[in-house]
Amino acid sequence: MEKSKVYDYMLSVLDKAENGPILEEKDWDRQYINQSIKDLIKKYDIQWDKETMVPSDDALADRLFEAGMELAREVGVYCLDTKRQMKWNQAELDYILSTAPDEETIGLGDDSVTIRHRLPDTDADITTIGGPYGTPVPEELFVPIMTSYAQERDLDYIDNATLSTTHGRPIKAGSPWEAVGCWQEAQLSFEVLERVGRPGMPIGCAEDSPSEIGELATCTYNGFRQTDWHHASFISELKVAYAELTKAMHYQHTGSFAHNFYNTIYGGYVGGADGLAVAIVAGVLLMKAALNGNTFNPGPSHAHLSCSTFPAMIPALSLGFQAISRNTKLLTSSFPRPIGGPCTKELLYESAAVGIATVPSGISILEGIQSAAGRIEGHVTGLEARFLAQVGRATVGMTRAEADPLVRKLTPLYAEQQKTGIALKGKHFTEAYDLETIQPTAEWQGIYEEVCQEMEDMLGLKL
User: Which pTM was predicted?
Assistant: First the structure.
């Protein structure tokens, strides 16, 4: 009965995309997003000490939740294909939030993992994911690169790279080549899982699906499985395309595990850190309302640096997770997207700062790392994902008040250098790993070990 009710609810979501008020996109950006967020910041007094990196004011977190809920209820989502405003009343939002369980199991057999809701300042375990997260890689390197992640036992499951080409041809969105590329991604992914002896481990997929075609083509017989980690997303700010709604309905029909994500833009229409925090909360609530996934990532992005590790963004991210964790059962994930690439200390400092700020804030999943902000082909390795997972698990049980001074020690180690960007791009996988053994080079292993020691000496974290 409940499944039938949820299905009817999802049909009503499609009705909203067809029948809501027609708006111009520029009015949506300026009035419905920018002005509404400014008003909510003032109404709910969303502010904190700018020296604080990990806020621990529960009353502020709860006010932020109310602000995000009001934005979700009064503004909603903009459908790009119909140019209509999709709106939910409070009863609808309360209903779909009530359907969210406080734990979900993903994967198969011995390789399955249970993801659990966590509250701030608790010692409940986190789930860890690693991968290149859509960073382009050459076809011939997909298997060794993904093996470098899948072999790491600190990681519960993996998220794929994107193939730069498929069978030597470009992957064009909305064309047959998208389906071909996603099938190649699936086949290579299963080869990786067999290679590391983890056949039932979930795979974040399909990273080669810029439209709905690749995902629908490969979430089927002998392709990606229902127990893999399928994706549907929003577009900034609080916009959705038919392609993503199509994926969401496909997951509903097939019973596939779905992850929803949304990259709200710091320095864009949401404004600064206070507006970013409001958009993070509203984004998570509305992704559940519109896409009805199982896990949710509101990973913000800097308007110019394309990263999520910019110091001023970290407290907004921490506070947003606290607001969701304290007031819902939703399973959220934190996703460091640093400027630094492999073989740079900055990559590890940036990622550790976000991990330490968000694990005590109540996230369920720590995922990463999209090294070099995902902008440079092949600048990814499994070692940085291992490091982040180790940092995350070392942070479990830490309070927000204990985490705050640690993050304040980390951000100065990369803040100035981060602004230059290019100097931190690091090295290509082939320069950071031995292709025969799929192990880090002595240089990259040495940098990793040095930073691990710094984490212990400077922060008291033993990795």
Answer: 0.97
